[in-house]
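Methods — Computational structure assignment.
A single polypeptide chain was analysed. Its primary sequence is given first, followed by the predicted tertiary structure written as structure tokens.
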Amino acid sequence: MSEQYKRVQSQYQEEVNKLEQEVDDQNNQITQLDQDMVEYQHEHEEKMLKKEEELTNLKRKVEEMSQEFAKMLRDTLDKMQQRIELVQWDNDSEPQMSKRLKEITGAALDNK
């Protein structure tokens, strides 16, 4: 009976050792998975920060381009207004100049 007891005890001890090893393996696996998760979270945060920085840079660039385009439109508008004013001045002054020229030539002819 003692031998049978030792054999059963040995079998139980082997089973306990096997289960303890399995628990250790699973704990190691859990630890590794936790480390992987932390690493992935860190990588994700870095990617998000890079994307946010890229988005901020793109928004700034769009704003700069918008301001440059607005300035270009203002400059074009100013040039067109100057041309319109010049054409209007020519049109407004032409009849007055013709009248004045007639007056001068008429006065010169009268003085001869």
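Note: The chain has a mean pLDDT of 88.
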